[in-house]
Specification:
The structure is a single chain. This protein has nine helices and 15 strands. The protein has about 375 residues and is α+β, with helices and mostly antiparallel strands. α2 runs antiparallel to α3. The two termini are about 55 Å apart.
């Protein structure tokens, strides 16, 4: 099923300015962000749709292609000039290339297949095979909870499939193309037997490589690719969460000369904190208080990711009671939204206060107006 028009998705006109597009995206993203709608699949899909529309219309080059050709123009390898030529050819019945559909300057035939069959491959049957697209890679990055809140700078080491520098990705010696095995036609396997008893086996001539080693580049064995270790220093933005994906453009795998290089995606894996917990943009912290502080009220100092703050404990506070510090949670810079910090009061009693402490406790028991377990029912 075709996706909705990107302008309709964002609720803007086709003449909308970049500022109007950004404003519309922010408003919708706040409404449908997964952190705001936990567990809601429909909101998650809507957020993806909004993000795709924004990524396209916020990029001047992509927006021009989309306005002219729709989503088709955003596909990898799309050739806008060939598509414009085809549209001209189809609109005038081939008149632009002669009545017979042939180019005036050449006797070669001109057909739909010649042109359109090549729109996305950059070459068709008259040129060299299309460059093989790159592949996206993933790297799981462990961060502690405070690093996800504050952001961090990390140095990672990744193994990237890259073009062989010796043969420049051709796979052959001296930069020539690798020699395809004539026995298996480059597949690495050959068919043995016929009919219902046929099966495939490894090609004996090339050993399953699909290429003949005699004419292949030695460092890459004819594959045209080598695995290269690379150290990258990356900046992790503040507010990322467990499972967040960070895209590093052009840091993925490359598979052929002239082909696109894939991207590297950092997948965040958040490590637990001993006293602080997180739920989306909100944080929770268990705060011990004394019996006196809970009974009489007090002002105490609490650590937060942004620094220490003073908090008032109301008189008569109960163990398990929650205090909310608005705006002291996690900030999502993209959505300009900040969560809250929830403090759970935990009344602590002395482990061993001696006779006086025990006498004070006995005296304090007399002030309970009712049995504190009166409403405890199973």
């Amino acid at each position: 099923m075709a996706r909705k028009d990107f302008y309709t998705v964002l609720g803007v006109s086709r003449t909308a300015s970049p500022e109007e597009i950004k404003k519309a995206y922010r408003q919708l993203a706040r409404k449908y962000h997964p952190d705001v709608n936990p567990g809601k699949k429909e909101a998650e899909e809507r957020f993806k749709e909004i993000s795709l529309a924004h990524d396209t219309l916020a990029d001047e080059r992509k927006r021009k292609l989309y306005d002219e050709f729709g989503e088709e123009g955003l596909q990898a390898g799309f050739d806008p000039e060939k598509m414009r030529t085809y549209k001209q050819w189809s609109s005038d019945g081939g008149a632009a290339f002669g009545r017979s559909g042939r180019r005036p300057s050449s006797g070669a035939g001109f057909s739909f297949e010649d042109l359109v069959g090549d729109l996305f491959s950059g070459g068709g049957r008259r040129t060299a095979p299309a460059a093989e697209p790159g592949e996206d890679l993933e790297y799981v990055l462990d961060l502690n909870l405070l690093e996800t809140i504050r952001g961090a700078e990390k140095t990672i080491s990744v193994q990237r499939p890259t073009l062989c520098p010796t043969c420049r990705g051709t796979g052959g010696r001296g930069g020539r193309r690798a020699t395809v095995c004539p026995e298996c036609q480059g597949h690495g396997q050959v068919k043995v037997g016929t009919g219902t008893v046929s099966f495939m086996r490894t090609c004996a001539r090339c050993g399953g490589e699909g290429r003949l080693s005699a004419g292949n580049c030695a460092p890459c064995g004819g594959s045209g690719r080598v695995t290269t270790p690379e150290r990258l220093t990356v900046k992790i933005p503040a507010g990322v969460d467990d499972g967040s994906r960070i895209r590093l453009a052009g840091k993925g795998a490359a598979f052929s000369p002239g082909g696109l290089v894939g991207d590297l995606y950092l997948v965040i894996r958040m490590q637990p904190h001993p006293v602080l917990s997180r739920n989306g943009l909100d944080l929770s912290l268990d705060v011990p208080v004394t019996v006196g502080e809970a009974l009489n009220g007090a002002t105490i100092t609490i650590p937060t990711p942004g620094g220490d703050v003073k908090v008032k404990v109301p008189p008569g506070s109960q163990s398990g009671q929650t205090l909310r510090l608005k705006g002291k949670g996690v900030t999502d810079a993209k959505l300009h939204t900040t969560g809250d910090l929830y403090l759970k009061l935990m009344i602590q009693v002395p482990k061993d206060g001696g006779d006086r402490a025990r006498q004070a406790a006995e005296l304090l028991d007399h002030y309970y107006a009712e049995d504190p377990r009166k409403h405890l029912r199973l």
